[in-house]
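Researcher: We plan to redesign the surface later, but first we want a full-length starting point. Tokens attached.
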């Protein structure tokens, strides 16, 4: 039977999938009556936020009766200095997810398309579908990386936003400098290239691996928009703050569709403090690289493959359907992310853990995948 709300809901909303976030630790512990569960499901920073950020936030609490600075001036000025761009080239969002939605709303007309490749971050599809825009996913390389030729072959006169994550979630793959330049050279005149660099600071820990630099692409072409976030390397996923770097005219249109006060005063203050925590950033990137190296060396099993990654997670081909693998890991107190919803039904994604937790994560994986 059709519920009453069904008849009132536009078709593109009825067709939306609900985003399934990683299972919270508390939920698993409650369900299984256990303690000490490990969550490696949401690509969070296991080192947490920098202690100096935590120490600085209480000073903001007495000002919570005031609305935040809607322009986020202090944070934008600090970011402009850090990245050597004008203040007007920076836009803040409630996480970089918010900016993705803003990009679609601001720039993609009803007949225009959002294009990415398969096995990209699910929010690209959601952002397009929520707005009722057409979403297109081009094939990847056999190693699940961005196949630039396939992406270019998918360009149509309606292509408006081409979104590429580098490193990409969930595959951990990066766009090479040459591929990025090729993509930009072929980009239709009326389209924009969104380079999602949510994990870029982790990739910097792999200087020997060539990967595209979004800011250099932006310097070469004003149709580039770079997305960054404080949720990953800065360990501030709970505060919800991300930023876009782009041409001032593009940032201006984003500002028109963004909700006023979309970034809270605590988020602005925390991000500003975090930006100076260079040692924390370096330590987090080094820790992630070391763990990815260990995961790749130590996780084995028939048909099992741990993909290379320049981010803070690895994609694991389980060689069998991965939902039972996910469930078996839950019973061992380890929460990973099953990848069926991402079109990879035999894969799981495993984020880096605290150093003292990693042996348990590896032992559980080896046990379940044996
Ligand atoms: C590739 C990618 N982009 C963007 C985001 C969004 O991050 P946030 O909205 O927390 O900034 C994520 C989060 O998982 C991600 O993996």
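Model: Full-length starting sequence:
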């Amino acid at each position: 039977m059709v519920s009453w709300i069904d008849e009132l809901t536009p078709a593109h909303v009825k067709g939306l999938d609900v985003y399934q976030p990683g299972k919270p630790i508390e939920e698993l512990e409650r369900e299984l009556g256990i303690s000490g569960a490990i969550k490696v499901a949401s690509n969070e920073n296991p080192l947490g936020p920098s202690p100096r950020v935590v120490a600085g936030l209480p000073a903001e609490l007495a000002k919570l009766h005031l609305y935040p600075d809607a322009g986020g001036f202090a944070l934008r000025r600090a970011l402009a200095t850090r990245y050597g761009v004008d203040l007007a080239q920076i836009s803040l969002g409630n996480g970089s997810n918010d900016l993705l939605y803003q990009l679609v709303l601001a720039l993609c007309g009803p007949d225009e398309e959002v294009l990415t490749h398969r096995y990209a971050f699910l929010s690209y599809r959601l952002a397009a579908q929520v707005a009722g825009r057409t979403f297109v996913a081009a094939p990847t390389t056999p190693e699940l990386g961005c196949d630039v030729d396939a992406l270019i072959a998918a360009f149509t006169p309606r292509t408006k936003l081409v979104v590429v994550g580098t490193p990409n979630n969930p595959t951990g793959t990066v766009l090479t400098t040459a591929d990025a330049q090729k993509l930009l050279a072929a980009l239709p005149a009326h389209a924009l290239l969104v380079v999602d660099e949510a994990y870029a600071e982790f990739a910097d820990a792999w200087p020997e691996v060539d990967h595209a630099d979004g800011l250099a692409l932006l310097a070469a072409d004003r149709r580039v928009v770079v997305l960054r976030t404080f949720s990953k390397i800065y360990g501030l996923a709970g505060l919800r703050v991300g930023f876009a770097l782009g041409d001032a005219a593009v940032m201006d249109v984003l500002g028109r569709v963004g909700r006023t006060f979309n970034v809270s005063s605590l988020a602005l203050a925390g991000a500003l403090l975090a930006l100076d925590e260079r040692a924390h950033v370096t330590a987090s990137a080094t820790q992630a690289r070391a763990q990815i190296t260990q995961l790749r060396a130590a996780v084995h099993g028939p048909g099992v493959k741990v993909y290379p990654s320049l981010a803070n997670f690895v994609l694991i081909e389980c060689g069998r359907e991965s939902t039972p693998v996910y469930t078996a890991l839950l019973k061992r107190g380890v929460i990973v992310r099953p990848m069926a919803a991402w079109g990879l039904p035999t894969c799981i994604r495993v984020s880096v853990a605290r150093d003292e937790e990693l042996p348990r994560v590896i032992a559980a994986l080896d046990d379940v995948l044996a």
